[in-house]
Amino acid sequence: MKYVLVSGGVISGIGKGVIASSTGLLLKTLGLKVTSIKIDPYMNIDAGTMSPLEHGEVFVLNDGGEVDLDLGNYERYLNVTLTHDNNITTGKVYSKVIEKERRGDYLGKTVQIVPHVTNEIQDWIERVARVPVDQSGEEPDVCIVELGGTVGDIESAAFVEAMRQFQFRVGRDNFVSIHVSLVPVINGEQKTKPTQQAIRDLRSLGIMPDLIACRCKLPLEENVIDKISLFCHVGPEQVLAVHDVSSTYHVPQLLENKLLDFLKTRFKLDQISISPNHVNAGSVMWNSWKLLTSGHDRLFQKVTIVLVGKYTHLKDSYISVIKALEHSAMRCGRKLDLQWVEASHLEASMNGTDPLSYHRAWHLVCSANGILIPGGFGSRGIEGMIAAAQWARENNTPYLGICLGLQVAVIEFARHVCGVEHATSEEFVPQSDEHVIVYMPEINKDKLGGTMRLGLRPTIFQPDSEWSKLRKLHKNSKEVLERHRHRYEVNPKYVELLEQKGLTFVGKDEKAERMEIIEKRDHPYFVGVQYHPEYLSKPLRPSTPIFGLVAASAGLLDEFISSGEPVEWTDVSHFNAESALADSSESVEVTSQATIVSTD
């Protein structure tokens, strides 16, 4: 087993997750089987109770694990299925150690950070690294370990020490350390001092970086590479320049030559027996990846989607939604123009306190090709979301509601079509006689952590739903498997009334008791899903409900359904050729450079 440690210095959110994912992707192109582990030094057991505005999106796995958003990056880049054990936190490690101490596993010894906590971390990594994560069902060849936060933080001290010991446990030929640092530009000059200091800190803790990935706005100048090499005790070929690019999907190509050359030598990959089938699959995947990313840069025609959310101040709160929209836009041959609207800005009260924000928000909603309302919790901004759903329904604007977005659409329909004047959710107004959204009866109301309806669950398309556009996109499948994360559901008492008035529940759970999908028949695309389709979206296999929204917004949905094409890519080369011939008469959108970020 080979291990690659990715750590970071200078600042948090420097892009370790993208670089870790890109490293794994490049190793997969060689035919190797790759898995990933994310270490988060916080005391929480998992990310489930953390605010999206503080730590970004909570990503949900098949097994119901609520984990850091970087695991979403790993799954998207590597096409793997991870488990909750692939996310290590201080809380999890300490819980394990204390549990062992209570059982008497330490035979009366004084339990200490070293060796007991550090050994638990190392054992965890070795155990999880050997768990199969792809369709082959075989043990991985390489494990990418990303250490969250910034080296030098007191929270990560035990993990840094564990990795210092780990490099000797597995041996030099099986361990590579990549340190991600920042090269800021001051008055036009690229400065290396922050990187020098970050490497000095890392070396003082016993880890000698093999590769230094330097984040910078523009490509590193040769003299800067030489200076970093000189003062950081690495060769120039070990300094990786990772500048801002139009899409983070270009990062693997930035790293390809230097990174792979070093890893091939250090890991002695020429001595490893790799299945020809895996080598061929890796080559095909890499060619598809390059065709997709280069084709994306040649797109001119835009599709404008408005995201009406509660956490728009931190875009990482919706990172999987953003990526899923990008995947679908590429599949439609369109450049995504994503506009952000804070839900509270659409509420009537905002017109009195901040009319500029109010009118700007409504201008974006009214001029959008499509509207998406993602998941969230709490009552803030709900009336604005309801107003956006009403606009989409009444003006035939394509609409997709995800989790909370479904519940908002149901409340809006109940109020304005069904005559349930004060329709609301038990989450927003606990005391009401008109709860169209209620707490699920099996959910623990006192304990919040890990108590929601979580993980991969089936949704069954109902009889006589063959007309559904979403079902047609699913090739008239009888069921779909999607990941869930919610505490509230549609009140069964109102289902009959809602359906009589035209809001059809085309998908339900396996017992036909829980409402999973809503759709309006007489609308270009008005869909709500209780699950989170964004979690399973991949660049070459876009999410079906989100693809439906983007295709409808671009005016392509009916044509696509009639063609019988699958949503997932079958031949990416067509995309590259077609995008190069895109209608150049369209105004070309100037896209700002994408900053590679990772919220730690």
Can you characterise this structure?
Keywords: ATP-binding, Glutamine amidotransferase, Ligase, Nucleotide-binding, Pyrimidine biosynthesis. Residues 314-542 form the Glutamine amidotransferase domain. Catalyzes the ATP-dependent amination of UTP to CTP with either L-glutamine or ammonia as the source of nitrogen. Belongs to the CTP synthase family. By secondary structure, the protein is an alpha/beta fold. The protein folds into two domains: 2-290, Rossmann fold, CATH 3.40.50; 300-570, 3-Layer(aba) Sandwich (Rossmann fold). The protein has a nine-stranded mixed beta sheet, sandwiched between helices. A seven-stranded parallel beta sheet has the order 5-2-6-1-7-10-11, with helices on both faces. A three-stranded mixed beta sheet has the order 16-17-20, covered by helices on one side. The longest helix has 22 residues, at 276-297. It is globular.
SSE layout:
Layout: E1 2-8, H1 16-29, E2 34-40, H2 52-55, E3 59-60, E4 66-67, H3 70-78, E5 87-89, H4 90-103, H5 113-129, E6 142-147, H6 157-170, E7 175-182, E8 185-186, E9 189-190, H7 193-204, E10 211-216, H8 222-232, E11 239-243, H9 251-266, H10 276-297, E12 302-309, H11 319-331, E13 335-342, H12 348-353, H13 355-367, E14 370-373, H14 382-394, E15 399-402, H15 404-416, E16 424-425, E17 435-439, E18 453-461, H16 469-473, E19 479-486, E20 488-490, H17 495-500, E21 503-508, E22 515-520, E23 526-529, H18 544-553, H19 557-563, H20 572-580
Parallel strand pairs: 1-6, 1-7, 2-5, 2-6, 7-10, 10-11, 12-13, 12-14, 14-15, 15-23, 16-17
Antiparallel strand pairs: 3-4, 8-9, 17-20, 18-19, 18-21, 21-22, 22-23
